[in-house]
Amino acid sequence: MKSFDYLRPETLADAIAAGGAPGAAYLAGGTNLVDLMKTGAAVPDRIVDITRLPGLDRWEWLDDGGLRIGALVRNSDLAHDVDVAQTFPAMAEALLSGASGQLRNAATVGGNLMQATRCPFFADPTSSCNRREAGSGCAAQGLSARAFAVLGASEACIATHPSDFCVALAALGAMVEVAGPDGTRAVALTDFHRLPGAAPQTTTVLKPGELVTAITLPAAAAGFRRHARYLKLRDRTSFAFALVSAAAMLRIEDGIIAEARLAFGGVAAKPWRALDAEAALKGARPDADAFATAAARALEGAAATAGNGFKIPLAARIGARALTLAAAGTPAEMPVLPGSVHLGEPAHA
Amino acid sequence: MPDVTPLPAATPIRMGSNAGQPRTRADGLLKVTGRATYAADNHPAGMAQAVLVTAAIARGRVTAMNVEAARAHPGVVEVYTPANRPELALEPDAKPSFFSKLTETLQDDTVRYEGQPIALVVAETLEAATEAARLLAPQYAAETARVGFDLAPYAPESVGFGFPIEMSKGDIAAGLSEAASTTETVVETPPQYHNAMETHAIVAEWKDGKLYLDTPTQAPGMSAAGFAAWLGLDPADVVIRSPFLGGGFGSKAAVVGAFLLAIQAAKLLDRPVKLALARHQMFGHVFHRGATRQTIKLGMDAEGRLTAIDHHTTAVTAAFEEFIEGASGAARTTYAAPAIRASHDGVRNDVGVPGAMRAPGEASGSAALEIAADVAAEAAGLDPLEFRLRNYAETDPMSGLPYSSKALRECYAEGAREFGWAGRPLAPRQMTDDAGMLVGWGVGTATFPCPMFGAEARATLRADGTAVIETALIDMGQGSWTAMAQIAADSLGLDVEQVEIRGGVSDLPDSGVAGGSGYTATLGLAIDNAGGDTIRQLAEIASSDPDSPLHGTGNTRVVARGGRLYAQDDESRSESYADILARAGRETLSGEGKGARGENDANDHSFQSHGAVFAEVKVDPDLGQVRVTRLVGAFAAGRIINPRMVESQLSGGMIWGISFALHEGAEMDPRTGRILNRDFGEYHVSVNSDAPSVKVLTIPEEDAFVNPLGVKGVGEIGVTGTAGAIANAIWHATGKRVTSYPIRLEELLDL
Amino acid sequence: MKSIPVSTTVNGDAVDFVCAPGETLLDALRNRLSLTGAKEGCGTGDCGACSVTLNGRLVCSCLVLAAEAEGAEVGTVEGMADHDKLHVLQQSFLDHAALQCGICTPGILVASKALLEENPEPTDEEVRYWLAGNLCRCTGYDKIVRAVQDAAAKMRSA
Questions:
Q1: Are residues C73 and C118 in the same domain?
Q2: Contact, B453 vs B221, CB < 8 A?
Q3: Do B409 and B487 lie in a common domain?
Q4: Rounded Cα distance, B229 and B14, in Å
Q5: CA-CA distance, B419 to B408, in Å (whole number)?
Q6: Using 50, 70 and 90 to split pLDDT, how confident is the model at A335?
Q7: What pLDDT score does A338 carry?
Q8: Mean pLDDT, range B385-393, rounded to an integer
Q9: Alpha-carbon span B121 to B278, nearest angstrom
Q10: Cβ distance B286 to B251 under 8 Å?
Q11: Is position A101 within any domain?
Q12: Is B126 at the interface with chain A, CB within 8 A?
């Protein structure tokens, strides 16, 4: 990999000072950044290792019942905590759906938000990619392939965001706490990632030197604990990125959906929250028709490129399935295993 | 010596109690403690690190490289490009051995496939070499790449390693036109890459006039000769150390250009050099299983008996070199029919040259033929297993020769019983589980030939009565350190603990080729013969020694057992090896043996291993996701030397079948000829959670003809049959006949 | 680019080395400390052959910078056996023939040990999913599960 300077600041202020320099990159779990540095897709001059920053490696329950998760909490630690998993089951399932045990152990929740797309042209510095190098073109356009976006894509970029975790966060209404040279601010997770538009190189709303310090789940998100699932379709049973995935959460009162949350992965350059579908479900009976109708509505604006047309109906189906499973109730023991259609629970509850 | 008659090979005398035992892996302790040394684990003093630079286009030329920038990077020792390419003793396009293919040694600026070597960087550290390689930033003039099947086909010279492109018998046209019904099935298989977990690696060191290479090879003797030819050396001056391979699967038999570059760098720089390919460099320079499109026409009579099998394969090969996947060979070996044609043509793509990959020919061929057989069974209204039994080949389908042995019927029966095949609904989409998943059952016939290559071994009895076997044995995981010791012990009448195996180095007797599932048979026979030769000499010494209790017995009338020779007809007469040697004043006594197929054996019999694989899948009816939930394989492969190792080989092969059916395949960008998924993140091989519990049955099979040991081979047959069984099970679950591998979930959706 | 001094603990032994910023923990283990049990199968975290524990946590050492090991505790396959006494898992892998070519074996053993420390009584399904990050190309997946389960049972009753 390209030569770089390695810094390991001990305070957040020092980290931000070091990370604001041109060519600097923050290193946390390294599961994505180090990989990209090896392919040459990332060529930082300076690595700012933030893994030793104090206080960011834990989570705390807020007085109102919300949860504040430090950015350096490891994915596996969060997923395997019984309280966290029982309160936010779809999030735990999403975390366990990602990558492998090794990578979940290393990867941090903040880093998960910062993951780069797995578009093969992004990772290959010899290919044109507007996301990696502004204005260089998009080699993905015109290729018949299964993985590309069906929602929110642009002429400049049709890549998808690879995270499972973020899909659950989007549905949960998570907030992202950010610190930078200009102080701290909070951004809704659904506003954190940017759709590509004409400038796909800008993938998040982070400004130079800013870094994620925490993710907050509002107390209201805990209200879905009894009816929340994350489901993922992929080409292997494990250790593969989503073709499509869905996080579904319901609050059911007296047999009626009081509130619904639905978000998709694998379909867009950001986790895709389906507000229209959620609105359609509010007040409905939790039955198959309502779920199918709502999930289909979420895909109304979808547009295929060559080779990925199947993802549109498939996303609608997995949305409906995730809602169905959520309605049937969160499994008694959480977390179990990565959200898979093949792990024994009834498909048609 | 008039009273001495030659000992016939493999008399019952020498098959003792060691073979057939499920002995623990001899190399296991080293492997579970991390102490087994693979090529890239070597680090001689003064070693420099090399990094290979490979082309990022599939066709064209390299127009520029920033050699100055790379050279200027701290720690860089040298950068090799076509401009300063070290000279070879042979022309770049020479092919010094049977397995050789055209390779690249920086001979010019041409790029003929993605991943071709275009430069070699040598530095003090791996990090410096890696960065300097990046700084080279090659520029290219790319030409339009040739990709896919839809190009003008051509008639290749041969198929696989020298088979004719077409073989036939009977009247195909009549067999099809007079059939009660016919089916036509077109199946495509993708390019697959061996991707042994150990990438190709070499540590080259020139010392005292010899070249020492730590590098994985499936054929040490042939590799040493190949390196010597390229480098203009006496083969005796090339010493390859290859005790363990981190998998080979056919990719580690031939000399490739990258290794020659590392060796030359070591010579020019006068220091050891290590080169290990990066994972993405495993997709091009070191062979692959070429893509096929197979068209299979079957004719049947009213009872579902085949009247014709017409199996045509269009195989993708490289634009500059030929290796044709012999997929139609499956039609020659699997089912009986009065008319059979197995034909091939080729299509040239801008890809690295294909080669043999675990179950070459048969893996791809059976993956297609087994689907075609199910299509025919469906057309005939027959249970797929009944269809296969109805078309059972009692003799070799093409040659008509009798089989040396064939317990396939027993495989079908035992496998079906273990699986619970009886009661399977004939129509698809009839079974569901409690969770609402569609359930399907499929069967596939497994078959693989039993070739033998040449091998040599030396057995030496030592004064203390123990023995050492010397041969350039390699173990790529199949268990040869273990199984060969068992064969050796039996041949010498010793316990396996008393036999030391010296192997893993090419300057020992040539162990031949670990490939084609023929290693145990071939090298095992060489060892058996070496042991037999040694015992025969020992018996001669004893028989001609008036002081021996065995005096006058002759060398054929003794039994070797437990470190003693016994008179066959009077076991009260016996003497220990140590005593015989001591009285003869011998420190050691050596015998030699060769292993090869008998000259005329193949004229008399057809040699095949057989098996039947049964698969259960579950498929989500709405989402298409497939899981293989059960696999049962029953195999008949002659004598089993070590059941524990054999089960591993067969089970592993079957999981390769899962990978073939559901996961593996390089995806080519048709615009550029580049591989889109050239890493383990996206080139999917099955992971642990993709594998179900696998049940392996081995059906006893005595074979008096295949070779004197009766060993057939198990390394590859597990792959065959399995992919087809899974595809057929998916049809049975869903009613969808997917004919393109790997089977993707979107093909199973009712959209 | 400066060299970075690192003080760390590997298999209980304090070690010091100097590395380049871009050097991975895997390369430092193999090239500087001569601990070649961990292998590079991919270099991109996609195969698990380089699995080690870092502060008790199972990771792919090919994606960890060597500099990150400062002050940490690293565990590799070389530290599993207690001198000549094999770890229960090592013996179980031998007994169940849960290895073939053996190059993935060190990573799978380290991963299995980490699994059983966290979950001493896993289901087969849990073992399969937990070990999904360790590719075995030969492929001994089924026997690996049997070996891990047998070892787990022995460790529970020990």
A1: no
A2: no
A3: no
A4: 40
A5: 16
A6: low
A7: 60
A8: 98
A9: 14
A10: yes
A11: no
A12: no
- Average pLDDT across chain A, whole number: 95
User: Reading across the β-sheet that carries A256-265, which strands appear in turn?
Assistant: A228-233, A244-253, A256-265, A272-273
Tokens matching residue A186: 């909070």
d(CA A19, CA A10): 13
Residue B262 lies in a domain: no
Give the burial string for B407-435 (b: 16+ CB within 10 Å, else e). Answer: bbbbbbbbbbebbebeebeeebbebbeeb
Nearest to A235 among B56, B663, B670 (CB): B663
Catalytic residue among B667, B716, B746, B747: B716
Tell me whether residues B623 and A2 touch, CB distance under 8 A.
no
> Which ipTM score applies to this complex?
0.98
C-alpha A248 chain-centroid distance: 14
Q: Which residues contact B531 (CB under 8 A, 6 or more apart)?
A: B14, B459, B467, B469, B487, B488, B490, B491, B492, B591, B593
The reply to whether B670 and B537 lie within a common domain is no
Q: List, as one string, the DSSP characters of B611-664.
A: EEEEEEEEE-TTT--EEEEEEEEEEE-B--S-HHHHHHHHHHHHHHHHIIIII-
Provide the residue range defining the domain that includes C93. Answer: 88-157
Q: Are both B516 and B629 inside the same structural domain?
A: no
Mean pLDDT of A5-18: 97
* Residue B667 forms contact with A (CB below 8 Å): yes
Instruction: Determine how many CB atoms are found less than 10 A away from the CB of residue A207.
Output: 12
- The residue from B596, B623, B654 where one domain ends is B596
Report phi then psi at C69, rounded to 5: -80, -5
Q: Chain-wide mean pLDDT for chain C?
A: 97
Claim to verify: residue B657 and residue B668 sit in the same structural domain: yes
β-bridge pairing B238-241 and B626-636:
unpaired
- Pair type for strands A211-217 and A228-233: unpaired
- Report CB contact under 8 Å: C139, B38: no
Residues of C in contact with B201 (CB under 8 A): none
Structural domain count, chain B: 2
- pLDDT given at position A331: 87
Confidence of residue A345 (pLDDT cuts 50, 70, 90): very low
Residue B682: pLDDT band by 50, 70, 90 thresholds? very high
Residue B518's domain comprises 12-36+453-596
* Tokens read off for A11: 């305070």
The per-residue pLDDT for range B494-539, each reduced to its tens digit, is 999 999 999 999 999 999 999 999 999 999 999 999 999 999 999 9
Q: What does the pLDDT read at residue B326? A: 98
Cβ atoms within 10 Å, residue A55: 11
The CA distance from A39 to A1, in Å, is 8
Q: A268 lies in which domain range?
A: 226-328
What is residue B404's three-state secondary structure?
coil
Q: In sequence order, which ranges of B687-747 are alpha helices (DSSP H)?
A: 722-734
Please, which residues 311-330 of chain A have a Cβ atom closer than 8 Å to chain B? 313-314, 317-318, 321
User: Chain C residue closest to A47 (CA)?
Assistant: C21
The string of pLDDT tens digits covering residues C34-74 is 999 999 999 999 999 999 999 999 999 999 999 999 999 99
The answer to whether the CB atoms of A337 and C129 lie below 8 A apart is yes
Segment B282-286 mean pLDDT: 98
Rounded Cα–Cα distance for residues B464 and B119 (Å)? 54
Task: Indicate the helix (H) or strand (E) that contains B444.
Answer: strand B438-449
Mean pLDDT of chain B: 95
Bond prior to B22 in cis (omega within 30° of 0): no
**Are residues C72 and C110 part of one domain?**
no
Length of chain C measured in residues: 158
Closest residue by Cα to residue C74 from C12, C132, C117, C128: C12
Whole-angstrom distance, CA of residue B314 vs CA of residue B398: 21
* B716 noted as active-site residue: yes
Report CA Rg, chain C.
16
